[in-house]
From TrEMBL:
Its EC number is 3.6.1.-. GO terms for molecular function: GTP binding; GTPase activity; metal ion binding; rRNA binding. It comes from Coprococcus eutactus. HAMAP family: GTPase_RsgA. It comes from the Bacteria. It is an enzyme of class 3 (hydrolase). It is found in: Cytoplasm. This is Small ribosomal subunit biogenesis GTPase RsgA.
Length: 294
């Protein structure tokens, strides 16, 4: 009878799954039989039990997928504790509309999100705009991957959790990841060498093990984001700062767009709600009203 141990799937390629196991080894496994019957496909991030078939070559078989508490479709990953969305305060200029759409989509998925503005060493014109996200209802941190500012806070945030890092190209995602995991670098390289074998063209979802129960998934940069299947009237619930006013305006069903005596519009005027976010809200609301996809 082979040994059964637990671990986490950190990568899956062509029917093989790579398990970071509790004994500290990386196992190459197949998922035989039972999954085909149960129609459940193992996902990166799944906690699994594996049967060790060949201890010398670290080969095994996944025998059980432990219950998932959530899963994302893009990137395909299970058991995500949080997402960190990275933008740069400058170079490239932050696309706040993209940020707000991203936040809506994460709100919809139910995964907690932290906003991270990088490159604070540059002294940009739009620092105040970035700072206004501190009032968005999301934890908002400011870092400089180049100078190491804010990296300790980032390390605290990711500790013992599974975190998806997302952000547009060029904002310094790689630099930030390198800043938080200098010691894990060599290990990641070793794993990649073993796994890749000439498959450089496709980008697969992969969790990086930072140590302990800390895992990070780096996602490819994105430049647009389409979230559909939200009714315009429900959009306000996906903006925590705006949702706080639901039912409090003169009109109980106020959508905070063109209704009179709207407390949200008042809060924007008073600087309690970010004007940028409010304007994005109205833009997305109107798009949804017109049933255009955005
Ligand atoms: N001034 C400044 N530049 C930074 C900082 N972090 C990264 N950069 C620079 O920004 C550029 C992009 O950094 P990367 O880490 O490659 O960015 P990325 O988000 O991983 O980019 P993609 O690979 O396109 O997704 C590089 O020239 C970095 O040197 C920072 O904190 N301050
Ligand atoms: Zn209102």
């Amino acid at each position: 009878m082979a040994d059964i141990i637990s671990g986490k799937i950190i990568k899956g390629i062509g029917g093989f799954y790579y398990i970071d196991a509790e004994d500290g080894h990386l196992y190459e496994c197949k998922a035989k039989g039972i999954f085909r019957n149960k129609k459940i496909k193992p996902l990166v991030g799944d906690n699994v039990n594996i049967e060790i078939l060949d201890p010398e070559n670290n080969l095994g078989n996944i025998v059980e997928i432990l219950p998932r508490f959530n899963s994302l479709i893009r990137p395909a990953v299970a058991n995500v504790d949080q997402t960190i969305i990275i933008f740069a305060v400058s170079e490239p200029e932050p696309n706040f509309n993209l940020l707000d759409r991203f936040l809506v989509s994460m709100e919809k998925s139910g995964v907690e999100t932290i906003i991270c503005f990088n490159k604070t060493d540059l002294s940009p014109d739009n620092m105040e705009a970035c700072r206004s996200y501190s009032k968005s209802g999301y934890e908002t941190i400011f870092i400089s991957a180049r100078e190491g500012e804010g990296i300790d806070r980032l390390r605290e945030i990711i500790k013992d959790r599974t975190t998806v890092f997302a952000g547009p190209s060029g904002v310094g995602k790689s630099s930030t990841l390198n800043a938080i995991k200098p010691e894990a670098e060599a290990q990641t390289g070793a794993i990649s060498d073993k796994i890749k074998r000439g498959k450089h063209t496709t980008r697969h979802s992969e969790l990086m093990h930072i140590g302990g129960r800390t895992y990070i998934m780096d996602t490819p940069g994105f430049s647009s984001l389409y979230v559909d299947s939200i009714e315009a009237e429900d959009l306000k619930e996906y903006f925590p700062d705006i949702a706080a006013y639901t039912g409090k305006c003169r009109f109980n069903m106020c959508n905070h767009v063109s209704e009179p005596d709207c407390l949200v519009k008042q809060a924007v005027a008073d600087g309690e709600i970010s004007r940028i976010r409010y304007e994005d809200y109205v833009m997305i609301y109107n798009d949804l009203k017109e049933k255009r996809k955005w």
